[in-house]
Structures are given as structure tokens and as C-alpha cells.
Amino acid sequence: MLVAKASFEFLPVKIGGLGEAVTSIATYLQRSGDDVWMFMPSHGIQHMPEAYPLRFRKFLTYEARVGSSWQTIDVWEGWRDGVRVFALSDPVMDNPHVYGPTDEDVVDKIFHFAAAVPGLMNYLIAHEGRKPKVFHIHDWHTTLAGALIKKYFRIPIVLTINRICYGSTTIRKMYEMGYGEFVDGRWLYGEGFDLEKFGAYNSDFLTTVSYSYLHEEWDKYFHLFDGKVTYVWNGADTEYWNLDNIKWNTKPREERRRIILEDIGMKDGIMYLFVGRFDRAQKGLDILADAIRMVLDGSKDSPNKAEMRFIIGGDGDPGLKELVYNLSSQYPDNVYYFGRFLARDEVRELYGASDFVVVPSKFEPFGLVALEAMAMEAVPIASRVGGLKDIILDIVSYGDRGTGKLVPPSDPGALADAIISMGNLAVSTPKFLRLIGRNGREHVVSHFTWDKAIKRYKRIYNDMFATYLPFIKYRRPL
């Protein structure tokens, strides 16, 4: 089976969990014996040193009409773990800002990509004599490309929504930018043109990344697509997220922690890690900041607060960046901020040294950070929302079979209490904490690998999947 995929992120291009997930899905699908073509805007990746392993070469040049003008499209071909990667390039798609920096830039890149993809697909089918069984697109940025592939090549579309954005691009904005011909009566929804909703209606199959997220958002969103929507849990690449791969893998976790903390100028202590996108609406970094203050300023009683080390890596919302900078200035012995997104290998080293990884999301479709942390035997402290409550076994309910701690979302006090209680465990019963860490690794390997996800995606590609039935309850999700 040949599967074509489209995404705005594919490693090394990674802003959040999407890049990790799409790369893993493509890689494990290829390993399973199928072939994968990966389509993405270039974002200038063909010239990036970190893209060297893909060994991009110029593959094809053609003209595509985008709006009212013609653009020269260069296609760069590369390979990653057997996956054939096509980076589509022109002055707009070469913008290194994946989603910006302005809304106009995002819209521009979406339409340039959509107009360019059919030309490449047409060439591949004509010259190589192969036609993909499905075109699997990821998130709303690729829905227009999917629509044109379905229209001109009659290839079924699978859309995966990793996070509902509820966003809309106005018709006026599209006309102002010269994209009016994309809008016709079939594509209008109210006063705006919702790319995500259009893509969901236009797709043949619709998936999201966890059972709980599908269920939580059913009445508000997913019910609109009743009959063709299901879920596929994400997975963790347990070969990559493996303690055997870290620098100090022969040393005990406590020693690895001491080395890493000393390397960033901090004394050894109980290590709590937050990594990810600074997204005020979703990721809960403001909730974590409030909880840290409660713990460190004494409003929450903690005998171990002097030994607590909060390590934060990420970028995004300027207000949240300022908040974290101020926190690290106020509590320099306890809080450290890297001031940037961390490289994948850096995150792996930190997972391998941390006692806890904090995931304080206000909502969370899946929670890949928690899964990666468990694969590295770090214990998650996370919100009881969405996919997080699917993948983490709370020690309150599961005892010594648990894998982490769940707390109510958007509740700084509850998060502070969990930080304190789990820190007390780290000091009083470190063997129990390490048992919970090992449980996490075993849980991921048993239930949340990409091999398992690929088996489910293949059933979707072959129209043999179990759909979501809102009027039926099973003892456990199918």
C-alpha cells in the first residue's frame, strides 16, 4: 500500500507534538511494509544544517497558479528512515516561521502549499505509475491541499485533528489576498470560511488522537461528523525515548539529575520539568507558575521546598515568557528557564534525569510529553483531562501499579498540593517512586507504541475501523 501524507511539521521541523507524531506515524508505517510519500512546505528546511540526514536534492520544478499570479515551485526530495519526503519550495513556503509570524503569512503559506501539491502528485502518478491509496492530512493547514487532491485524483482523504482550533479565515481576508476563487457555495459556513471544519466535512474519514478528547468534544464539535469519525491514540517512539540512549545511562537517576542541575548552575534537588509550547489557552504554564509561587512563598506548607528545582523549557506567548523570566529571577535557587525551545536530544536528557514531568494542561487532546516522560521512567504530574487521563494510571487509584499523578485542571492549589505530595514521596520513599517510573515505561511499551497506532490507521485506510457510537458504552474503548 502506498500512503501519501501532508503536514506543516515533520522532523526536524517541530513546534509541538505534531512534528513528533507525524514523523513517527510515517516512519512506523514505512517499517510495517508500506510506502509513504510525505508532502510538506519547505520552511527553508532544504538549506538547514539540521536537515542534513534527509540529504535533500532538487527533484522537480514547475509553475503553479496561486491566487492571481503564477509561482515557480521547486520540489526538494529527501529520505528519512525509508520515508520519501517532498519539501515544496517558493518564496512563501520557504518562510522559516512555520506558522507566522503574522496571520497573513500563515494564510499565504496554506494557499501556496495547496496550489503546489496537485502538481507534484500529478507528476508522480504520471511518471512513476503509482497512485496513493489514501491522502492522510494533519490539521487544518493542509485541508485545502487535501480538497484539491480529492477533487482531481479521486483519492480518499483521511484528516487527523490533533487539536481543534475553532478558527476561521474570513472570506474578505481570502479575497483581499487574492484567493477568492477557492471560495464557492460548498465552502461557506456562516460569515466565515473555517478551514478546519471544511476539511472535516470534505474528508472521507476523520480521526483525533484519544478516546477521551473525542468524547469530551463530541457535543461541541465531533458530532457534526457522526458516522465517519474515530480516534487513534498517539504513541511514543520507545526506541528513541529510551534510557539506553542518554549520555549518563550507566549512572543512577539521582546522579544524572545532579550532573544536569550542576551543569545549569543549580544545586541538586527534587527535579520538576516542564517542556513545551507556551500556549496560554491550552498548556497551563500560568497555572504551574501560580502553583510554584504557592509552594515557594509558603502559602502551601512544604518541608522540602528548599530542595525543589523547577526546570522550564519552551517558547511562545510573550506574556508567559515574561512570567517565567520573573519567576526565575525571584526564585533563582529553585526555578531555571532555558529561554527557548529545546532540541529533541536535550529533552531526552532532561527526561532521563527528572524526578517529575509536569503537564498542567487546561485541555489536552493527547499529551505526548507525558507519554515520552513515562517512556524515560520520569513520573508525570498532569491534569485529569483528555488523553492525559487515558494514558496515565493515577497512583491514588492504582497504588503501586500506577504510573503518575492526576489533578483537576486549572487549579493551582491542587497542582501545588500534588507537587508537594509527590516531592515528599521522592524524599521518603524513593524506591516507590522509581517503581512508579518503571511502571510508566512498561505501560507505554504495552499499550502506547506507534506499532499499535499504525495497525489502527491501516484499518482506517482500508475502511475497516470501529467508529465512535455516541449511543453505545463499552467497558473500555475499542
Give a brief description.
The chain has about 475 residues and is an alpha/beta fold.
Q: Can you walk me through this structure?
A:
This protein is of the alpha/beta class. Helix content is 38%, strand content 20%. The chain is globular and about 70 Å long. It starts with a strand and ends in a 17-residue tail after the last helix. Mean pLDDT is 92; it is low at 183-191.
Would you spell out the secondary-structure blueprint of this structure?
Layout: E1 2-6, H1 17-31, E2 35-41, E3 57-66, E4 69-80, E5 83-89, H2 103-128, E6 134-138, H3 143-153, E7 157-161, E8 169-170, H4 171-176, E9 192-193, H5 195-202, E10 205-208, H6 211-216, E11 229-231, H7 253-263, E12 270-278, H8 285-296, E13 308-316, H9 318-330, E14 335-337, H10 344-351, E15 356-359, H11 368-375, E16 379-383, H12 386-391, H13 395-398, E17 405-407, H14 412-428, H15 430-447, H16 450-461
Parallel strand pairs: 1-2, 1-6, 2-5, 6-7, 7-10, 10-11, 12-13, 12-15, 13-14, 15-16, 16-17
Antiparallel strand pairs: 3-4, 4-5, 8-9
CATH topology type of the largest domain = Rossmann fold
What percentage of residues falls in helices of 4 or more residues? 25-40%
Q: The biggest beta sheet, please?
A: 9 strands, mixed
Overall number of structural domains: 2
- Average of per-residue pLDDT values: 92
The parts where pLDDT drops under 50 for at least 5 residues are 183-191
CATH class of the largest domain equals: Alpha Beta
Main sheet: strand order: 3-4-5-2-1-6-7-10-11
- Record field, number of beta strands: 17
Q: Termini separation (Å)?
A: 25 Å
Q: Using the alpha-carbon principal axes, give the shape.
A: globular
Q: What portion of the residues fall into strands of 2 or more residues? A: 15-25%
What's the assembly state of these chains?
single chain
Computed Rg: 23 Å
Q: Using the 3D structure, state the CATH architecture of the largest domain.
A: 3-Layer(aba) Sandwich
CATH superfamily of the largest domain: Glycogen Phosphorylase B
Provide the structure class. alpha/beta
- Summed up, the helix count is 16
